């Protein structure tokens, strides 16, 4: 798919999201943009965690029939001898 085709597909997905949620693309982007990951590395391992999902973000995900992402994305523990 060329550049023109991918741009058209992106616009179609935006329009579907606007129609399903009843919100403008600007509102959707502002709400979802606040969904961020935090990474913590300590001597015992690493943790990647998503921030708490807001009610606005829940509304968007539910309207689009999407499952919310898991809060704890990855956890790596290092064994110490």
List keywords for this structure.
81 residues; single chain; alpha+beta
Describe this structure in words.
- The protein is α+β, with helices and mostly antiparallel strands.
- It has one domain.
- About 45% of the residues lie in helices and about 20% in strands.
- Strands 1-2-3 form a three-stranded antiparallel sheet, with no helix packed on it.
- A hairpin with a 2-residue loop joins strand 1 (about 35-40) and strand 2 (about 45-50).
- The protein is elongated, with a radius of gyration of 17 Å.
- The N and C termini lie far apart (about 50 Å).
- The mean pLDDT is about 85.
Q: Please indicate the percent range of residues in DSSP E strands (runs of 2 or more).
A: 15-25%
Radius of gyration over all CA atoms, rounded? 17 Å
What does the average pLDDT come to?
A: 85
Q: What number of structural domains do the residues give?
A: 1
Low-confidence stretches are none
What percent of residues adopt helix (DSSP H or I)?
Answer: 40-55%
Structural class: alpha+beta
Number of strands: 3
Q: What kind of sheet is the major sheet?
A: 3 strands, antiparallel
The gross shape turns out to be: elongated
State the assembly state of the protein chains.
Answer: single chain
The largest beta-sheet arranges its strands as 1-2-3
**C-alpha termini separation:** 52 Å
Q: What string, H for helix and E for strand, traces the elements in order?
A: HHEEHE
């Amino acid at each position: 798919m060329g550049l023109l085709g991918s741009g058209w597909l992106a616009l179609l997905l935006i329009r579907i999201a606007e129609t399903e949620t009843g919100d403008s693309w600007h509102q959707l982007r502002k709400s979802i943009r606040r969904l961020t990951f935090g990474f913590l590395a300590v001597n015992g391992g690493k943790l990647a965690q998503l921030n708490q999902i807001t009610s606005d973000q829940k509304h968007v995900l539910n309207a689009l029939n999407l499952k919310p992402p898991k809060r704890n994305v990855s956890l790596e523990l290092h064994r110490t001898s």
